[in-house]
TrEMBL record:
Signal peptide: none
Positions of the Beta-ketoacyl-[acyl-carrier-protein] synthase III N-terminal domain: 112-193
Upper taxonomic lineage: Bacteria, Bacillati, Actinomycetota, Actinomycetes, Mycobacteriales
Superkingdom as given in the UniProt entry: Bacteria
UniProt source species: Mycobacterium terramassiliense
Domain Beta-ketoacyl-[acyl-carrier-protein] synthase III C-terminal, chain residue ranges per copy: 245-335
GO biological process terms held by the UniProt record: fatty acid biosynthetic process; secondary metabolite biosynthetic process
Entry protein name: 3-oxoacyl-[acyl-carrier-protein] synthase III
InterPro entries in the record: ACP_syn_III_C, ACP_syn_III_N, Thiolase-like
UniProt xrefs under Gene3D superfamilies: 3.40.47.10
Keyword annotations: Acyltransferase, Transferase
GO molecular function: 3-oxoacyl-[acyl-carrier-protein] synthase activity
């Protein structure tokens, strides 16, 4: 007996506030050894979460599109909730319970995925399809919030650094069901444990992240680390993408649409070159939204669907890597349209 098909039915998104231009950072700029590095060339715009806007607020707002198109029951009745929040509102526990409550859900499964990072959407798709195919429910909701730009990277002493002009905030919610409408064709997830821990927080003076102290935390970038991350990202994303394409019997250059995370322009160019795809078949919102971390794939997918770039029957390939290269994943979906 064949397993039932699991489909990515729809996705809806939310961007907080008005676009913030690159000039916002110019007023804070100071000497930074990495300012001219290609990793930190700023996008034209990005969005910042409001000071009192929690990640659960962002998810609730992102869910509005799904509720409008599919009704409250489709959301409230979901059996599985999978979440990823870049900066949890509270230490010690994830956002899953709070999101379930806010959306009126009583799911059997609530899973918070920290390790997925910028590839969290692919990881969540994989978990959702496995659970639903195994009989653990008929519907799953994936909720992702990227809220680091307006909080972590906008700290008064951190926004002076080159790294702070690149991230942007946003949220996305996706609906996955037992259906053959928009089947998930294949998923590849790979963990590179040898690189775990290479993404670090830096404080001046040094301290553990949870200890009180005068210095604000930033990502501990060095020239050496950046070189390694560039090499890993350039290799890992095409590797997982090629693995999925091989199993679904398509050459990467024949994929209708590529959707990736979007750390910077260099990765975006290198990935589509590796897959031999023209820019018009690789969706990104980098100039409007910056680096959206884990929310990048679903936000770009939503944009592509909404403006007709992703058409019914198209094979959409999603691929990303996380942190300093400790995780990467790719997923292919035959998009069936919003119905």
């Amino acid at each position: 007996m064949s397993k039932p098909s699991v489909s990515l039915i729809d996705v809806s998104t939310y961007l907080p506030g008005e676009p913030i231009g690159a000039e916002y950072y110019e007023q804070f700029v100071e000497s930074d050894d990495l300012r001219d590095h290609l990793m930190f060339r700023a996008p034209k715009f990005r969005h910042h979460v409001a000071p009192e806007e929690g990640s659960i607020d962002m998810i609730e707002r992102a869910a509005h599109g799904l509720i409008e198109r599919h009704g409250h029951d489709a959301i409230e009745g979901a059996d599985v909730l999978i979440t990823h929040t870049q900066v949890p509102d509270m230490a010690f526990y994830g956002q899953g319970g709070g999101i379930a409550h806010r959306l009126g859900m009583r799911p059997s499964w609530v899973l918070d995925l920290n390790n997925g990072g910028c590839a969290a959407f692919v990881l969540a798709l994989n978990v959702a399809r496995k659970l639903l195919a195994a009989g653990e429910g008929r519907t799953a909701l994936i909720a992702i919030a990227q809220n680091a730009a307006g909080q972590f990277f906008d700290q008064p002493t951190i926004r002076r650094k080159a790294q702070s002009a690149v991230p942007g905030d946003g949220a996305a919610v996706a609906l996955v069901t037992l259906s053959d409408q928009s089947p998930i064709l294949d998923v590849e997830c790979r963990t590179y444990g040898e690189y775990a821990g290479e993404m670090t927080l830096s404080y001046d003076p040094p301290r553990k992240w949870w200890q009180a102290g005068p210095g604000e935390g930033s990502i501990g970038f060095t020239e050496s680390k950046i070189t390694k991350v560039l090499a890993r990202g350039n290799r890992q994303v095409p590797e997982v993408a090629f693995a999925v394409c091989d199993r679904i019997g398509m050459a990467p250059k024949d994929i209708d649409l590529l959707v990736t995370n979007q750390p910077n322009r260099v990765f975006l160019r290198n990935w589509r070159d590796a897959l031999e795809l023209p820019p018009e078949r690789h969706r990104d919102t980098f100039e409007e939204c910056g680096n959206l971390f884990g929310a990048g794939i679903p936000i770009n997918l939503d944009r592509a669907i909404s403006d007709g770039q992703a058409k019914a029957g198209d094979v959409v390939l999603m691929a990303a890597f996380a942190h300093a290269g400790d995780f990467a994943g790719a997923a292919a979906v035959r998009w069936g349209g919003r119905g």
